Amino acid sequence: MSALTRDEVAHLAMLARINLSDAELDKMAGELAVILDSVARVGEVAADDIPPTSHPLPLTNVTRRDEVRPSLGADVALAGAPAAEQQRFSVPRILDED
């Protein structure tokens, strides 16, 4: 187990601007030591003969191919709009421009 002193935890808390009580400093020293040991253990597992990957299993693309299909024209799309201008939907301004 990594030895993290109470003073080191207090220094880290001061850098992070976190006020910890004496009991919290003692508790955090143990908890941070466990975290550091876990990270060190992960570093031991990594080997040079294993390439880094983003996923443990290969991914296949499941998207469909793009196909050109007929779509609505501007007149049909704007037919139900309460207001239209220059073949676009017209909506009330919500932000002032300077």
UniProtKB/TrEMBL annotation:
Domain of life of the source: Bacteria
GO molecular function annotation: asparaginyl-tRNA synthase (glutamine-hydrolyzing) activity; ATP binding; glutaminyl-tRNA synthase (glutamine-hydrolyzing) activity; transferase activity
Nucleotide-binding among keywords: yes
Reactions accelerated catalytically: L-glutamyl-tRNA(Gln) + L-glutamine + ATP + H2O = L-glutaminyl-tRNA(Gln) + L-glutamate + ADP + phosphate + H(+); L-aspartyl-tRNA(Asn) + L-glutamine + ATP + H2O = L-asparaginyl-tRNA(Asn) + L-glutamate + ADP + phosphate + 2 H(+)
Enzyme category, top tier: ligase
SUPFAM superfamilies, alphabetized: Glu-tRNAGln amidotransferase C subunit
Quaternary structure note: Heterotrimer of A, B and C subunits.
Family: Belongs to the GatC family.
Functional note: Allows the formation of correctly charged Asn-tRNA(Asn) or Gln-tRNA(Gln) through the transamidation of misacylated Asp-tRNA(Asn) or Glu-tRNA(Gln) in organisms which lack either or both of asparaginyl-tRNA or glutaminyl-tRNA synthetases. The reaction takes place in the presence of glutamine and ATP through an activated phospho-Asp-tRNA(Asn) or phospho-Glu-tRNA(Gln).
Protein name according to UniProt: Aspartyl/glutamyl-tRNA(Asn/Gln) amidotransferase subunit C
Organism, scientific name: Oryzihumus leptocrescens
Upper lineage: Bacteria, Bacillati, Actinomycetota, Actinomycetes, Micrococcales
